[in-house]
Amino acid sequence: MNRAIATGAAAAICAAAGAAFLVGGMPRGGSFAAQPIVSAAAAAERGEPIYYWDPDGKPFYSLTPKTTPDGRAWRGVPAGADVSFDDPEDAPVDTRAADAKAERKIKYYRNPMGLPDTSPVPKKDQMGMDYIPVYEGEDSDDGSVKLSPGKIQRTGAKSEPVVRRPVRSIIRAPGTIQEDERRVSVVALRFEGFVESVANVTTGDHVHKGQPLLNVYSPALSSAAAEYLSAISAGATGKELKGARRRLENLATPEPAIRELERTRDISLSIPWLAPQDGEILERNAVNGMRAGPGDVLFRIADHRLVWALIDVAERDLTQVAVGTQVSIRPRALAGQSFDGTVALIYPHLNAATRTARIRIEVPNPDEVLRPEMYVDAEIQAGTPGPVLTVPESAVLDSGSRQAVLVDKGEGRFEPRDVKLGRRGGGLIEVTQGVSEGEAVVTSANFLIDAESNLKAALKGFAETRGDKPAEPAAGGMGARP
């Protein structure tokens, strides 16, 4: 194919020479005058260029010296050089280099159109294109591929070393704020009684531990108080006195009320019932004069100084989350504010409808600006705990069932190699198997190199299958197919 193109180029140059003779030989008087034309043989004998080539490597040629618009001279091509049409950007190749390449042993010839068709002898395809010779060393048993410097430059192939570094990634997921179940308490009676009066508190009010909420009267409570006073008055000590006091404690009588009874030795008609903790009143069921039975919830109080953020994480990201992982919470209603917390629990079940797992994050809320049912966006700091072998994401060729990288062996040789991958993040991928630290992998144009590697592997396998015999052209096609 190159010979045919070179012949065409030579014919074009000769035609240009003839045109130059006709135009240059026309005298002003209107008659032709023979102009001396230097032949290529004469120019070769004197070592002069036989034609001139565009300095930018473009396919422009001239029989006479020329310059570019910016003043650069065209390259002179001597007779001992030829033009390589395999790599358009390459300069003319010296014939001595071609002779040196010809001394290498040709293993076989492959189809110029990339079809799996080889031949042990030179031949042409049905379009008249020469088969391309494959020399020893250009194909290797490890499936590697060797590219010329010009082809590497054109494809833009770049390599980076495999190094150890931590892989950091952020998992973003939505969630809601919920109360800490451990910080919710209720006010209820352990006996049957009556609510004489309720303090001036309503749902949503903040109360403090020990603050009176209501006054309670109960015959059972008065009876236990009278029994305790009788024991004190009788001078009882030890287990008897302790047992009388324990009956008051079993009825959940507030400690200040018991101490007041011991001080005054007087049984009050009603006893103040106190808030068991700090927090907001979520529920107020107590009403003046109501009858309350054992276990009836009169107040429900929650402490919001520590809240939970329940986040729904996609099933595929669940392996990157662990208890203790740092998380940043950004409430949608509080623009610009973020809160830090840690993963306290990963719930054991998945949501079958959304294929998500719920994780619980404990978030300090000293100002109580985070409110239950508030929507938040979480950023979970996932990644490897320490440095691991990593490659850029662009270095991995992933077909779904197979992951591979192209290892740069130097001198234009690239070896495809299967790898096993780990975590991803920050443009990096952890490699758990397949490469070693310090090896260089291709990070750009790897798809082009991989395509050529697959082509050469297919051609080699085709040649071995057919015993290196010439392939017969298929009827109606450009070459035989396996």
UniProtKB/TrEMBL annotation:
Top-level taxon of origin: Bacteria
Positions of region (Disordered): 138-160
GO molecular function, one term: transition metal ion binding
GO cellular component terms attached to this protein's record: membrane; outer membrane-bounded periplasmic space
Sequence ranges assigned to domain CusB-like barrel-sandwich hybrid in this UniProt record: 184-302
GO BP, one annotated term: plasma membrane copper ion transport
KW Zinc (keyword) present: no
Keywords, sorted A to Z: Ion transport, Signal, Transport
Domain CusB-like beta-barrel: 307-382
Domain CzcB-like C-terminal circularly permuted SH3-like per the UniProt entry, residue ranges: 389-449
Entry annotated with the keyword Signal: yes
NCBIfam families linked to this entry: RND_mfp
Similarity field: Belongs to the membrane fusion protein (MFP) (TC 8.A.1) family.
Protein name: Efflux RND transporter periplasmic adaptor subunit
Organism: Bradyrhizobium arachidis
Origin organism lineage: Bacteria, Pseudomonadati, Pseudomonadota, Alphaproteobacteria, Hyphomicrobiales
